[in-house]
Automatic annotation (TrEMBL):
Binding sites annotated in the UniProt record for DNA: R323, R328
An annotated Gene Ontology molecular function: four-way junction DNA binding
A single GO BP: DNA repair
Reaction(s) catalysed (UniProt annotation): ATP + H2O = ADP + phosphate + H(+)
Keywords: ATP-binding, Cytoplasm, DNA damage, DNA recombination, DNA repair, DNA-binding, Helicase, Hydrolase, Nucleotide-binding
Domain comment (free text): Has 3 domains, the large (RuvB-L) and small ATPase (RuvB-S) domains and the C-terminal head (RuvB-H) domain. The head domain binds DNA, while the ATPase domains jointly bind ATP, ADP or are empty depending on the state of the subunit in the translocation cycle. During a single DNA translocation step the structure of each domain remains the same, but their relative positions change.
Binding site for ATP: L33, R34, G75, K78, T79, T80, E141, D142, F143, R184, Y194, R231
Subcellular location: Cytoplasm
SMART domains xrefs: AAA (SM00382)
The name this protein goes by in its record: Holliday junction branch migration complex subunit RuvB
Region (Small ATPAse domain (RuvB-S)) location: 195-265
Keyword GTP-binding: no
Lineage: Bacteria, Bacillati, Actinomycetota, Actinomycetes, Micrococcales
Chain ranges of the AAA+ ATPase domain: 64-197
């Protein structure tokens, strides 16, 4: 097996270990479509160029690169980039996440088992518990972890030095990272939503990997309804393929794309059930707002974090929802999208 293939196998094995649950099949389908090298990674030109420089410099020096923080909404490629970083360095990747680390001791165990040059990917790093965070930034700065032996008054800390390694942290909420942790990252890349052309390229690449032929018009249609997000684009592509195979003639035509997207309730602006639930609650239940995040989340039956990180970034960006000091408000585009008139008393809020 070529070295690259070994690394990839190792990474996917690691990934399948940390991710369990009902969406395993979707995760596996997603993993198969991941770009494996920086040159295959579509869009995000600025971050890609910067990373390419950081990685090449590290390779030339024969040293582990600075720690990397990747921020941005879900599904834009943070995990993919972490895997690419390891592949580009010829290093193996260890994967964990903030919520998976319950105690500082769990993190100490991961850190003390790292080998020289390894890349440690910590997804949702903003959700690390405070003691784990403190342990992490000492490890990132001094390549040292203090192992506590014993309990209570007799406890003592034995410093254990670690080989050089690189942390790649991913977060949908960079603002929640405490400054001491944020400062330990030598490079921060912010991923932004993709434009329609970039998503078309993602889709055509994925169709090639899936061995299906995707009509150009169908790619454009799916891209325009993918909320600027490659994960959504790939997911919709798989649903269009399902439709084409079961109800159509197997070709991923524009007609198949439109029919499948109607079945899966993705509207012409790419809004899905959760997005529409948020807009409907905001406009009809709360009269257009302002309303606080928690109240809004309860109204749509979701966690505040899901509404905030999954639905809102796109709704803000597309001008459906606005933010005021007193809470979220429905913008004129939200009322129009739901086919409703803006109530007269709401007009003053938009200024
Ligand atoms: N730039 C890209 N080019 C091609 N495919 C991409 C790109 N970015 C992401 N993808 C695809 O989108 C899917 C989701 O990407 P990924 O899991 O890396 O997102 P993420 O930002 O880590 O999301 P989350 O924060 O939810 O874990 C992957 O299957 C990957 O194939």
């Amino acid at each position: 097996m070529a070295e690259d293939d070994e690394l990839v196998t190792e990474r996917f094995a690691a990934e399948s270990l940390v991710r369990t649950g009902a969406d395993d099949i979707e995760r596996a389908a997603e993993a198969a479509l991941r770009p494996r090298r920086l040159e295959e990674f579509v869009g995000q030109r600025v971050v890609r160029d910067q990373l390419s420089l950081v990685l090449e410099a590290a390779r030339n020096r024969g040293r582990a690169p600075d720690h990397v923080l990747l921020s941005g909404p879900p599904g834009l490629g943070k995990t993919t980039l972490a895997m690419i970083i390891a592949a580009e360095l010829g290093a193996s990747l260890r994967i964990t996440s903030g919520p998976a680390i319950q105690h500082a001791g769990d993190l100490a165990a991961v850190l003390s088992s790292l080998e020289e040059g390894e890349v440690l990917f910590i997804d949702e790093i903003h959700r690390l518990a405070r003691p784990a965070e403190e342990l992490l930034y000492v490890a990132m700065e001094d390549f040292r972890v203090d192992v506590v032996v014993g309990k209570g008054a007799g406890a003592s800390a034995i410093p254990l030095s670690l080989p050089p390694f690189t942390v790649v942290g991913a977060t949908t909420r960079a603002g929640l990272l405490p400054a001491p942790l944020r400062d330990r990252f030598g490079f921060t890349g912010h991923l932004d939503f993709y434009d329609a052309d970039e998503l078309e390229r993602v889709l055509l690449r994925s169709a090639g990997l899936l061995g299906v032929s995707l009509a150009g018009e169908a790619a454009a249609e799916i891209a325009s309804r993918s909320r600027g997000t490659p994960r959504i684009a790939n997911r919709l592509l798989r649903r269009v393929r399902d439709w084409a195979e079961v109800r159509g003639d197997g070709t991923l035509s524009i007609e198949a794309a439109r029919a499948a997207l109607a079945v899966f309730e993705v509207d012409d602006r790419g809004l899905d059930r959760l997005d529409r639930a948020v807009l409907t609650a905001l406009c009809t239940r709360f009269g257009g707002g302002p309303v606080g995040l928690t109240t809004l989340a309860v109204a749509v039956g979701e966690e505040p974090e899901t509404v905030e990180t999954v639905a809102e970034p796109f709704l803000f960006r597309e001008g459906f929802v606005g933010r005021t000091p007193r809470g979220r408000i429905a913008m004129p585009a939200a009322w129009a999208h739901l086919g409703l008139d803006v109530p007269r008393d709401q007009g003053a809020l938009f200024g």
